[in-house]
């Protein structure tokens, strides 16, 4: 191995506040030796918690934390340009920001609710990845962890869901927003292969995060679905983060346009 870490470059994570998947991804990069990490979230308070926890545990990591809304069409560009100014480049871009919709069938769903979910989940993911891809196109590739493999100009990992592949009751906007992320991932994988950029997504199953656990009515509606999966349990954010880091690393140098399901076998049943 030439580099001491699989992550000599710069990591950018959206939806990184608190104790969910994005925060676990940020921690996992620090654990794996990534020394430049930029995080963002619409929730300034939880973003600061993630930043402080990493800063205390990994004082050698250079951290940038910038609050912002991924649905704002100006935010992603300004955030990525600040990251590029401070850290020089963007190598591993992980788009985790997302919301669940209010549980309703399509006939009861308002246009405003449909747009809210899609503006954050799908459009927000596209806006973020578009800004990240533009930056990646400007930078020289970094050499791989072994010289038999091509250098990598960048890797994007979008967080979709098992609900982008199968569906569940009362979640039409959410399920469609996650299917759209899978489609976007495949399309971008085709378009940016020639530039040495890989684009993949991870489709988590039922994961123990604030999104699922915080509100009693959501917890009661969603957690029983974990028993559908052969592994009969919820996943941990760190179990999703490890899949994300693999896809970002040059260990995944031939993995392109993939939707990696991390769901305890849920969709196999
Ligand atoms: N937890 C699960 O069971 C599960 C399953 C499949 C997919 N996912 C997806 O994983 C991703 C992370 O979710 P999580 O479970 O860690 O939940 P979470 O609520 O802990 O994390 C989501 C983060 O996104 C942030 N966010 C919401 N709207 C935003 C916006 N407009 N701009 C910027 N940030 C915003 C939230 O503040 C939060 O910190 C989401 O995209 C979610 O859809 C979660």
UniProtKB/TrEMBL annotation:
MF terms from GO for this chain are: oxidoreductase activity
Which PROSITE patterns does the entry mention? PROKAR_LIPOPROTEIN
Per the record, a Pfam family? adh_short_C2
Record keywords: Ion transport included? no
Q: Which UniProt keywords apply?
A: NADP, Oxidoreductase
Q: Which SUPFAM superfamilies match?
A: NAD(P)-binding Rossmann-fold domains (SSF51735)
Q: Sorted alphabetically, which PANTHER family does this protein's record hold?
A: DEHYDROGENASES, SHORT CHAIN, SHORT-CHAIN DEHYDROGENASE_REDUCTASE FAMILY, PUTATIVE (AFU_ORTHOLOGUE AFUA_5G14340)-RELATED
Family, as annotated: Belongs to the short-chain dehydrogenases/reductases (SDR) family.
Q: What is this protein called?
A: 2-(R)-hydroxypropyl-CoM dehydrogenase
Name the species this protein comes from.
Penicillium frequentans
């Amino acid at each position: 191995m030439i580099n001491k870490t699989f992550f000599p470059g710069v990591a950018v994570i959206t939806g990184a506040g608190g104790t969910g998947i994005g925060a676990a991804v940020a921690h996992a990069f620090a654990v794996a030796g990534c020394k430049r990490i930029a995080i963002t979230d619409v929730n300034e308070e939880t973003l600061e918690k993630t930043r402080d926890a990493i800063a205390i545990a990994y004082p050698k990591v250079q951290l940038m934390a910038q609050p912002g809304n991924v649905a704002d069409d100006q935010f992603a560009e300004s955030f990525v340009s600040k990251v590029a100014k401070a850290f020089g480049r963007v190598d591993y871009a992980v788009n985790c920001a997302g919301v669940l919709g209010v549980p309703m069938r399509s006939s009861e769903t308002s246009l405003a609710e449909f747009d809210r979910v899609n503006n954050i989940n799908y459009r927000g993911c596209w806006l973020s990845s578009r800004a990240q891809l533009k930056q990646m196109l400007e930078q020289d590739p970094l050499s791989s962890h072994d010289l038999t493999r091509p250098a990598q100009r960048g890797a994007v990992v979008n967080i979709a869901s098992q609900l982008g592949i199968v569906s569940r009751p009362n979640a039409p906007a959410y399920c469609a927003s996650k299917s759209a992320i899978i489609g976007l991932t495949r399309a971008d994988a085709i378009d940016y292969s020639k530039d040495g950029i890989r684009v993949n997504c991870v489709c988590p199953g039922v994961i123990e995060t604030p999104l699922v656990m915080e509100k009693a009515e959501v917890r009661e509606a969603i957690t029983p679905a974990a028993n559908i999966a052969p592994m009969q349990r919820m996943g941990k954010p760190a179990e999703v983060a490890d899949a994300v880091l693999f896809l970002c690393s040059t260990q995944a140098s031939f993995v392109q346009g993939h939707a990696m399901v991390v769901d305890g076998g849920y969709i196999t049943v």
